[in-house]
Amino acid sequence: MRRVVALKRILFDAFGHFNYDDGWSMASHLAITALMALFPFLIFATTLASFLGADAFAETAVHLVFDTWPEQIAAPISREVVNVLTVQRSDLLTYGALLAAFFASNGIESLRTALNRAYRVVETRSFLFRRVQSLAFVLIATIGFLAISVLLVFAPLMVRLALARFEWIEPYLGTITLWRFVIASMVIVLGLVAVHVWLPAGKRRFVDIVPGIIFTLIGWLVGSTIFAGYLDRFSSYVTTYAGLASIMVAVVFLYIVSMIFILGGELNAAISHYFEARARVPR
């Protein structure tokens, strides 16, 4: 009975603060900012990859970003991303690439703002520190995507070499598509851990952020499945928005994703506050 009461208090605290602190509006802001940051990030990353000789990066980046999205949502926007990324660029060290990195870092800043509100903390770090940290996130993500791109390019060769020596492992290797999905899922989990630990003000232990991350992953899976089913059966986006249908679908999907992401932070904060309150009560 006590656990039911505790769960009820935690959920009321999380959802109540989300509603009280304009979580709905913050989710809209986060969704639009994420969409605006997506293209600059991929342009910057592809330009850097091309400069380093990783010409297959564009295809890999698209897979890493969109393989975990429902196909009805990912297919239209991923085609536009490929069209953008396949344009030849040679401006790595020009203002264009620097501006792309800057606009991509704005997406990181929106994540920081959302998590600061969710964790109910006040930002005390300087603007310069925060901007440098956001740019570092963009650069680290780019390097990570680049490393994965190189590995996936050499993956078929490594598989053939492994099979030549150890034929018994063939049933366990799966396909490149499966490995892309697994890697994309790992990138999402590592990204969630990184943003929850380092972006908001204050310090949190790993155990403090696990409930929110699990909630976010499950919520994303359920939310995207329901939204994809809705698009299949009941949607009138194409007739309503005509040529803007794909972008509107992406915006609504990112809004759902952003709302669940913020609620994950709210849940972590509510759990921490509950146990802090219990610790202050005399036994």
Describe this structure in words.
With 283 residues, this protein is mainly α. It has one domain. Helix content is 81%, strand content 0%. The chain contains 10 helices and no strands. It is globular. It starts with a helix and ends with a helix. 30% of the residues are buried. The mean pLDDT is 79. It is found in: Cell membrane. Keywords: Cell membrane, Membrane, Transmembrane, Transmembrane helix.
Give the tags:
single chain, 283 residues, mainly alpha, 81% helix, 0% strand
The SSE order reads: HHHHHHHHHH
Poorly predicted sequence stretches spanning 5 or more consecutive residues:
none
Task: Report how far the terminal alpha carbons are from each other.
Answer: 19 Å
- Percent of residues in beta strands: under 5%
Structural class: mainly alpha
Instruction: Round the mean pLDDT to the nearest integer and report it.
Output: 79
How many separate helices? 10
Q: What's the total count of β strands?
A: 0
> What is the share of helical residues?
over 70%
Oligomerization category of the chains in this entry: single chain
- Estimated radius of gyration: 21 Å
* Count of all domains: 1
Largest sheet: none
